[in-house]
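WARN no homologs supplied; continuing
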Amino acid sequence: MPASRAWESLRPWPVYLMAAALPLSIAAANTAKAFVVLFALVAVVRAARGHDWPEFLRQGRLLAVIGVVLAVFALSIFWSSAPLGQAANAWLKHAKLLLIPACLLLLRTRREAAIALGAFVAVEAFVVLSSWLLWSGIELPYVRAERTSVGTVSSSYLDQGMLTALLAVLCWYLRHDFPTGHGRWIAAALAVASMLNVGVALPGRSAQLGLLLMLGLVLWWSLPSRTRWVALLAPVVAVAAIGAASPPFREGALRVVNESRAFGQGERNTSAGQRLEFWSRSLQAVAERPLYGFGAGSWNTEYRRLAGERIIPKTVEVRNPHQEYLLWAVQLGIAGPLLLMAVFAALLHDARGFARREREALRAVVWLTAILCLLNSVLYDAVTGEAFVLTLGILLALGAATQAAPPPRPVPG
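OK structure emitted
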């Protein structure tokens, strides 16, 4: 087999493997990611030697924006208050954004992008089914005995909840692309099952609140202007319904309220109290250096400095404030959140010419990511960061391939 044909047949496989591994094993996903990076470098070399370069990458804004983001983070290492190794490691974590153009380099046809997306959807659907079985009291031989919640399958309930929220959005917006005659109904049922799984079987409040806000957004986009008031009521009604049906959900919501009140009275050693402590210390750091921040990887250093002797002992090694915008702000000042929003804006801008379904699916995932970044360090963390970035890259590849595909030839007669 000629080398070029062998390359074309192997080119998309690292993305397939990484998409399938992410819901189950971060170790396997990291191995696959190494091959994604290696294959992407080969694709860049081939393009530099005169082979085809994706037109979408050359014409879009995203690659330039990601380049600026990573260049600024690299420069910030020179003034970072963190040790050099910690600052370099933080840069590598932010560099996962390069997985997006890597997907565009490795997934060159609609079929390849659809297979990659299908790999993630199929494995994450298996995780959701397993989670429901565990929640129902059925023990599964492939699930470890010690779990962080009754519905947790492999990763933490926090990661699993956000990946399940991502699955719900993908299934809903791409339901017409599911195979088989009843594919759209299967996809819609899976979207509903995923939403309920997040609300009932998993205790992660970031995913729960993110999905509720997405429910309102989806209705806002879908309804005529005269009935958009329904979009404002839907999250409230959903909270009331899930709270009535699920005592753990209701108790978790009340616990957040009580812990937040207790934080105002000085109690910080609770789940909500720790998060509010992280956020308040982050705002202190930003107020000290609003223009250029404390550099890459500096959050932990500044958190420990500002907390001093009042630091919560079990949070000494925490590396992020569980909020992506504040994480970037501490490292880069006010420019940090603006650069993060520029990445989101570039994604939406570059997708303007996509077919409607692909454009709306990408928009929904971008908004879900932006919302979850308000509630956690979604992109910085390992499992969620790789999953959301890879999914955005696959959706871009899907839309770009659809956009580039020639129109069908008219049938004679």
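The chain has 19 helices and no strands.
OK
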